[in-house]
Amino acid sequence: MMELGKLSTREFSDYLRECGVRRFFLAWDEAERRVVTSHPALQPLADLFSADRRDFDRHEGLFVQYAPRSSTLQSVAIHRTSRGQGAGGTRYWGYDSTEEFLRDGLRLSRGMTLKNALAGIWWGGGKGVIAREGDAASEDHEHRRRVYEEYGEFITSLRGAYVTAEDVGTTVEDMAVIFTKTRFTTCIPEQVGGSGNPSAPTALGVVRGMEAALRFREMGTLAGKQVIVQGLGHVGLPMIAYLLDRGVQRIIGSDIDGHRVAVANERFAGRNVDLRRAAPDDTSVLAEEADVLAPCAVGGVLTPETIPRIKARIVCGAANNLLLDPRRDGEIIFREGITFLPDFLVNRMGIVTCANEQYGYADPDPAIERHLGESWSNSIYRLCLAVLERARDEKRATSDVALEMAVERSEETHPIWGDRSRRILQSLIHGDWAG
Ligand code: NAD
To answer: Does residue 325 have a pLDDT over 80?
Structure first.
């Protein structure tokens, strides 16, 4: 029997076409206590997630479409909507298998639930993933436009249960294309009233996390410290600038993309930076001598193999889902005596900046600034200190404490809209959305 999860995203798209399936969903069925799907032929795929429940954490829905004009597989995972519509960016990335593609959306959407809840914003957790076939650099403009037009139509079909934003592999220009097909997007260009690229505020928020960790460890300020930044992308670059402004003595950085390394070297020429190109499986930068390690590339970099090699006493980065296995690796990093601030605790500024953009903006904007300051008890700085102190007092891993806090808050119900998003999802699941 064909193992659907092992098919490449292209093979799986062909399979869907052969079966005449344009759209399908996977959803948690509380009565049956398993993951069910809209199409019986796809039940073996759903069973994968019932067998290994780590990623399918009672998600309210995982929606997938085969987009015929761009021949891409597109998905939206919605984890929990108690606090509001699922909100989170769309990732455009290549995957080795269909199972990997689906699991990434599930993990990332859960991360958004946690992040949004800790940030105190009234949004639930969702994430979009589009499977990129081939190399992004050689992709033609027309193809890309088709991808995002079809993705916009897909989001419209979800009736507002999910509101998208920019993420790895997508740009503000892509969001503008999505915006031509759906109102349910953020991060649209500033010229049309959007908030644009949210990455610089994200970087600043993570820096505030580092400052909280340094204070907690009585290591002073960032001035004179050495920091490793893995990933020289939209977040990594402004982060280096903020760090240098704060007097960081030396930065070590890496990226797999030679062009990005060249751009970074040009921008920071004359400063004490060592920025290099690394192979995708080269994790040596994580083990460099430093005070703070900031992984800002991809998730899953903190593993039983990498953690024992880390010399930095603080790990605080932007990349989502840093721990490969949150429970296991959170414990390992705790036992190693490393002060770890989970990504969903410190990388909130992207979503904070864009999620409420339809409410307008002030300059400076207190609704944004308070997250970066020290007077609000739920600011990044203050919440990090609270998590670190509680973890110390209870002798627990910070990842464990932050997770517990986030889950509790994620179950609070939106003060105005109650369970409306869940109702929308139920109407999709029990209606004719999947045909
Ligand atoms: P980006 O795509 O602009 O940058 C990521 C960079 O990492 C790229 O230059 C890529 O080449 C590089 N990279 C990939 N694999 C690598 C590896 N193994 N070693 C070294 N470099 C590698 O993305 P971004 O917007 O800068 O986001 C970075 C991370 O932060 C992502 O995980 C993203 O999900 C997360 N994040 C971003 C935001 C935001 O506002 N942009 C908000 C929250 C979380």
So the answer is: yes
* Closest residue CA from atom 25 of ligand 1: 234
Is residue 385 helix, strand or coil? Answer: helix
Cα dihedral value 242, 292, 198, 374, nearest 10: -80
235 lines ligand 1 (CB under 6 A): yes
Is residue 280 lining ligand 1, measured as CB closer than 6 Å? Answer: yes
Query: Which whole number is the average pLDDT over 401-414?
Result: 98
Question: What are 344-390's pLDDT values in tens digits?
Answer: 999 999 999 999 999 999 999 999 999 999 999 999 999 999 999 99
- 168 C-beta closer than 6 A to ligand 1: yes
Distance in Å, CA 320 to ligand 1 centroid: 9
Atom 4 of ligand 1 has which residue's CA nearest to it? 233
Question: Do 140 and 104 form a contact (C-beta atoms < 8 A)?
Answer: no
In this structure, which residue's CA is closest to atom 23 in ligand 1? Answer: 168
Which of helix, strand or coil describes residue 168? coil
Pairwise CA distance, residues 17 & 172, whole Å: 31
Catalytic residue among 127, 181, 225, 311, which? 127
Residue type, 152: G
pLDDT range class, residue 2, cuts 50, 70, 90: confident
Quick one: pLDDT at residue 186?
A: 97
Q: Which is it for strands 72-80 and 61-67: parallel, antiparallel or unpaired? A: antiparallel
In sequence order, what are the beta bridge partners of 64? 24, 75
Residues 6+ apart with CB under 8 A from 223: 246, 247, 248, 249
The answer to whether 115 is a known catalytic residue is no
Residue nearest to atom 12 of ligand 1 (CA): 231
pLDDT at 1: 62
Ligand 1: does its nearest atom lie under 6 Å from the Cβ of 296? yes
User: What tokens does 349 get?
Assistant: 């500024």
**Which atom of ligand 1 has the smallest separation from the CA of 169?**
2
Q: Look at ligand 1, atom 32, and give the residue with the nearest C-alpha.
A: 319
User: 230 CB less than 6 Å from ligand 1?
Assistant: yes
Q: Are 238 and 213 in contact (CB under 8 A)?
A: no
Which domains does the chain carry? 4-197+424-429 (3.40.50.10860), 199-343+362-396 (3.40.50.720)
List, in order, residues 6 or more apart from 22 with CB less than 8 Å away.
16, 65, 66, 68, 435
**47-51, 78-82, 96-100, 158-162: which has the minimum mean pLDDT?**
47-51
Nearest-atom index, ligand 1, CA of 281: 18
State the Cα–Cα distance between residues 75 and 65, nearest whole angstrom. Answer: 6
